[in-house]
Amino acid sequence: MKIFLDSANVDEVREAVTWGILDGITTNPASVAAQRDQSLEEILSEFVGLTDGPISAQVVAESWEEMIEQGINLAKIAPNILVKIPAGMAGFQAMRRLSELDISTHCTLVFNPVQALLAAKAGATFVSPFVGRLDANGQSGMEVVGQIVTIFDNYGFESEIMVASIKHPMHVIEAAVQGADACTMPFELLKGLADHPLTEAMKDRFMRDWKKRK
């Protein structure tokens, strides 16, 4: 399963790249807005210098025509830019046109399998169900992921499923078990995946035993 970092913070991305496990980066308007001293274009230009993996950047237009225009401009920054577009009819129209222009797209804000199906039909490169938001709304986010996996397998869609709104490590495990292609998550959560209290306890024990040998 591919692992993406969900961040617009250059320092976080720079560190995460050194871990050797990162496949790509996702951003959103909120995370970009938090970086008040840099524009989206400046952030993306720095990211391109740090990784060859896909870098997802979201349009902020509402009409499909403006989404296409913004998407074309974002894609000009580098060939590994994914144009991120919210689910919805205008979004699907934009995804189809950008797909016809050989521009990779990332459908975001997916909350049911039908939206994922339409995104795949529109040619989306990645489709992102928001599991944490669904869970918080009294639905099972992972059940939706499983349904999308089945639908895509049934019809041979090439779109990849990138699980988003990851809130805890179990979401990552469950996404992998369901057969999702990728997960995207915040810096601290991704960093914490490497840790387990028993790992630390056993390392400490081994080191104590080693020092006694000396």
Please characterize this protein's 3D structure.
Helix 6 (113-121) links the parallel strand 5 (105-110) and strand 6 (126-129). The chain has helices at 10-18, 29-34, 40-48, 64-75, 89-100, 113-121, 131-136, 141-155, 169-178, 187-192, 197-213, and strands at residues 2-6, 24-26, 55-58, 81-86, 105-110, 126-129, 160-163, 182-185. It is 52% helix and 17% strand. The longest helix has 17 residues, at 197-213. It has a single domain, classed as TIM Barrel. It is an alpha/beta fold. Helix 4 (64-75) crosses helix 5 (89-100). The protein is built from eleven helices and eight strands.
Short description:
This protein is α/β, with parallel strands linked by helices and 214 residues long. The chain has one domain (2-213): TIM Barrel (Alpha-Beta Barrel).
What is this structure's SSE topology?
Blueprint: E1 2-6, H1 10-18, E2 24-26, H2 29-34, H3 40-48, E3 55-58, H4 64-75, E4 81-86, H5 89-100, E5 105-110, H6 113-121, E6 126-129, H7 131-136, H8 141-155, E7 160-163, H9 169-178, E8 182-185, H10 187-192, H11 197-213
Parallel strand pairs: 1-2, 1-8, 2-3, 3-4, 4-5, 5-6, 6-7, 7-8
Number of strands: 8
- Classified in CATH, the superfamily is Aldolase class I
Strand content: 15-25%
Structural class: alpha/beta
Named CATH architecture? Alpha-Beta Barrel
**Assembly category:** single chain
End-to-end Cα distance, whole Å, is: 42 Å
Q: What level of helicity do the residues show?
A: 40-55%
* CATH class (first level) name: Alpha Beta
Strand order of the largest sheet: 1-2-3-4-5-6-7-8
Describe the main β-sheet briefly.
8 strands, parallel, barrel
Q: Using the CA coordinates, give the radius of gyration.
A: 19 Å
Mean pLDDT: 96
Spans of at least 5 consecutive residues whose pLDDT stays below 50 are: none
User: How many alpha or pi helices?
Assistant: 11
Total domain count: 1
Query: How would you sum up the global shape?
Result: globular
- Order of SSEs: EHEHHEHEHEHEHHEHEHH
Kindly report the CATH topology: TIM Barrel
